[in-house]
Design goal:
Number of domains: 1
Distance between the termini: 29 Å
Shape: flat
Oligomer: single chain
Mean pLDDT: 91
Order of helices and strands: HH
Low-confidence stretches: none
């Protein structure tokens, strides 16, 4: 695989990451606007998932 191919794949991943981020932010904003979740519930869930991810990462290393 050439360096150009690698750079192209990285650019594609960055674009996909950007689009996925937009989708997630849009969904979160809609859920909050419709009163289906609150910001505090979202923050608690994010912190919980982050804690779990850190524990799992430490187990791997």
């Amino acid at each position: 695989m050439s360096e150009i191919d690698v750079l192209s794949q990285i650019a594609n991943l960055k674009e996909l990451d950007y689009k996925n981020t937009l989708m997630i932010v849009g969904l979160i904003e809609l859920l909050i606007e419709k009163g289906l979740i609150s910001k505090s519930q979202l923050i608690k869930k994010i912190n919980s998932l982050d804690t779990i991810a850190n524990i799992e990462t430490e187990d791997i290393i």
